Structures
1.
Amino acid sequence: MKWIIAIASAGIAAAVWAMPAAAQSGSDTCSDILRNGTLQTTQIQDNRYFQQIRASREQRTRRRTEDVETSADVGIPIEGVPFNASGTGNYRTTNASTSDTSRFDWISEDREFSALLSSGDPTIVSAWSRCMDNGPGGLTARFVVHSAKEALLLISWRPGRVGNPTTGFPDAHLRDNIVLPAGVTVMSGQHCLLASNRITEGTCEVNLQLDSATRTLAVSLNTDRGVGAHAYLPQRLRHAVSSRPHIFSASDNAYRSLFREQHTVTVTHTAQLSEALTNEGWRFDPESIGFDVRKTSGGPHHRCHSPLVTDKQAYQITYQYRARTSFEDRDDRNTRLKCLGTPTARLVRDRWIAMD
């Protein structure tokens, strides 16, 4: 008796498996329906994995450390029904091993189909099912996600056309037992994974409990009919952007004092985001950055003016203003000018967190 080991991943490295040529089935043919073609827009009913696919596609084209504004389309024509998802979002594409990027298991192109199918979106599932019913038949396998740590593996046999030398039969048996890795617990349906189990036109359900939302799972199944199927369960994560006001410290303020000097000076200062905040994934939101200056003391003709932000970066801001003294009267000559420049900004953080 042979045993096939399913592969799971809880880190950045993606789980990989090889599908024998004999194991190819109508499932692979129907996956092309979800993968290629010219697209228009229809209603999206469940987009839980479109975010991951958008980010994965972006990551494949940008492998350098920078903040980018992502605008991407995920297009899938489904059995003649155009279907796509468009969206924008700030994704930090980087090779650095931060706490969040290292958790993300990028979805490869050949796994996009399984990821979309596991979303359970009715449009995708029904179109794929119709394709399988109208095609050569064979073994099918797909995941259905119930929560971040719960999923179903659905295994079924579709007889196909009578007379087909591989699928024209009412049932099939798995060629090998399927052994799931550590971190994945079978709550019910263990018999579905055994070679002794007879797979019929109905669906055999395997109820799975996973140890974390980042646990991925890849399974490959072969039958005694010479055809097989594979399925991939992506991480149950969603992209979340949070924002909050930043509280600047006193050292971030631009202070300048002038006394009995009749001239104008330009005051320049830089505020740096703390290492603790950057390590938590926070960065400055460039659209929210502001700077103001006021005179805290001085003669009637002394001025603190022309505040300007000269450089906006993810982790530091540079700003300046002008301070001008005057000797127009006694109060000006005998009063010290004091200027205080204060920056304002919000912090943003985008992370991959467990689905609800």
2.
Amino acid sequence: MPAPPSRKARKRLYLFAKKEYSSKNPRYVEVRKAKAARTFYHGPVPQLILTKYKALLYTVFVDYGSLARLYYFNRDGYRIKETSYSESQLTTIKDHLRKNSILVVRYPPKEQKESISDYSVAIDKEFLSVIELIEQLLDFSLEKRPVITLREKQKKSDYSWFKPFTFNKKFLEAPLTFAKNPDRFIVLRKEAFFSFFSKFLDNKFLCYDCAVLATILSIPQQSNIQKILKEWSTSSLDDQIFQLPQQEKQKEIVILFRTLQLFDSYEFETIISKIGLTNNNLSEIIFGKLSRFLFSDYDPHYRLSSLFRFFVPLSKNNGKDDDFCMELLLRASCLERLSNQNKRLHPEIHEFSAQLDEKKMSIKLALEVIDYLEQKRVDHLFSVWRKAQKYFSKIVDQQINKIINYFYQEALELQVEFPEASIEKPVEVTFILKNISDTSLSSLKMDDIRWTPKNALTVIGERSNLSAKVLHPNETKEYILPVIPKHLGSINFKKVKIRFNDKTGKKHYVRFPIKSLFVD
């Protein structure tokens, strides 16, 4: 068996190939080694193979585009002969070389073509980055997300740059051309917002419209916004709102997301679907109402409350009974109480509830509940709701109990009176606690009052705390803290914590901020 080619032989080949490439400016130059021919086999599973090596072991192929030249070299790296090929012969000789030789080196090196899986991984990483940015904006972690994959050809006949994806189990599939789309970041944002919103929305039409709206609000460039508006058939929004500061638009995205979260908490879609509208019509109505609140001061609770109110007359016209309409009004009332938007409930709640049959016990009790919700009368609300809760859903029951706890948080009012304070002169700080609710509070106790710097005040005498076995409605309790200031300037008090029990024995606590004391 002949010895393998020496290192010097290969070096001569490489130098020749480099010189051809640098001096004659061809498309490329390839150094190729002829494949050995196996001529003899021994045994059913060959244990002995004789191989015949060709005398002309190496070739250097130079491609000029319209013609080519092939150089033949022996085992020692010396050129033996050369052959030229015309343009019509190029395909044949290239096929022959691919079948009968092995590529050793190429000038310039052949560029590695990215595979479809490489493109898929790159696009999916971009998608993940977009999701992480939205998670920071919304302060919400997306536990599961779809994975983006690419395919060679498009499947959808109605393919467009704005809707390239088809959903396949856990994957979003798009044609390979999507990877080269300069506007793909717009599409990725839309799909990311859709992934977030679909956690709380079953209606895909509504989810899509909300995702497109959030995408527009997240993009500052007007040119890109116009591209989206051309693709979005639902859009009937004033273009002026998209020219507002980006910070305002991001704030609106967060409020939209919080509103959709409430959709889930209040089972909004479930109860509204009972009215009998198609998903598409329902989506148009809801999105139209939501879009009217854009850049208003109304919080998510109030926005959802307005939707519940809107569907009351529509439900009545579609033949729904009074209990169903009252269910909507109770949910709207709870949302408004939690919104802190207005001191009183919206007039429509009273207007629509007055149209219901007061002779029915469920309606009669619910009307009282609405009145007590508006007046924040926690004792009466608790008593009446115990009778009314069997007529209505668990959602309303949960929200009423939440509001009762909320009312207890507002049952107390604390006033702190500071006299003029001078260094090293005793002063009395007066704490006046008043029960402003309609119910008695028991086992009331105020925690120790603390301040910074710690040594700024010295308590005179034995330290005690404000406490009361029972604090009746409109009753006040006074506590005087005698102290000697030891520090000039501002003395900052920490929030004081007050504990109490309601009429059922449930424990509550509330924290009150205290203004600073200035010592001169």
3.
Amino acid sequence: MEDSHRSARVKREGDLLSILAHIQELSSPREILSVLLRRTVESYGFLSGWFSIFEEGEWHLVDSYPPLEAQRETSLLSLLSSLEEGKGAKTLTRKDHFFVVVPVRTRWALRGALILKGSSRPGEDLLRILEILGVATGGCMTRCEKHISRLKGLSFLVKAERRGRNLLVLEDLSEIEERVEKDCRELVECQGVLLALVEENEIRFLKPVGEEMKSLARRILSSKKEIFWEGKGLFPLLWEDKVRGLLLLEGTEDLLKKQGKKGVLDIYTSSLAQSIHRAMETRLLKERYKGIVTSPLLCVFQVDPEGRISFINGSLALTLGYPLREARGLVGKPFHQLVHPSHQAMIMEKLKAQMKEEGGPEIHQITMADKEGSPVPMMVSTVPIA
């Protein structure tokens, strides 16, 4: 047993020397962090790892291994609050996993932290090795100090991509509008509002605006280029080369001076435009669908693969003599109950065949049965749906 522990310790120390030698050869902070994360996770049996830098009193996640490892950013950053001045690595438990937070310090200050996720609690000897890695990484970061500010810009780009993906799951335009203000404040550090939506080349303002703003909006709709004035910026939200909306930002002069923020804005506005487009399409489809199923001129029903009624609109219910309050009670019942006995076998056979073939619309002349069982001749168009 003692020999196995000694062998494991020798291997860990050998891995440490190998990692240190590797990162000492590198001059790019991006490479240093990438190698550090990959080698540490793989050599010491962790599941994943992240690196965060500490700048101007704030933490910024800048790298992960494996790449794009899914983990809520807020939960990771909350782990960093456990770091204390002058203290070493710390092990924390979250649900079924252990997280090791390793401070990365230079001689003068805390510069970052290595966060490692594992399935078992690391021993004291491994924690000491990780602390040595943290000190060595701090030295490497000092050596390439002039590049460090770029990492913060990278963290905002990653955050912009993540926020953009979050926007794409929203289908309600009011939800998107509410989200924009918070996103702009956190991503580009200035006040921002979704000023207008554009449908069929028509501008619909979401906020009260004057004639000057309306004129600027029309210019952007034509040029598809942003406009800056008096510390403000009006940006077109472009998707598939069409303006889908307008984003108004304040404090854009300072924004454009900050490294990487223009790139962050480009990523975010592209996702915002796509989200608006999808929300508009969804709303249009819902309006069309609602118009069809609520029309007093159209009888609409839906049948599931087992032949049960899954939807029936008020027009069909009334045509067959059912009061509207009873229409909902028909859902879940066999569809053939609404068909005259003389046509039941024929129509059910055709519907089952059509569902299997997944073809286009078919027209059937059938006789339905009203609530009293009396025949009701109808021309029915049926189409399979997913």
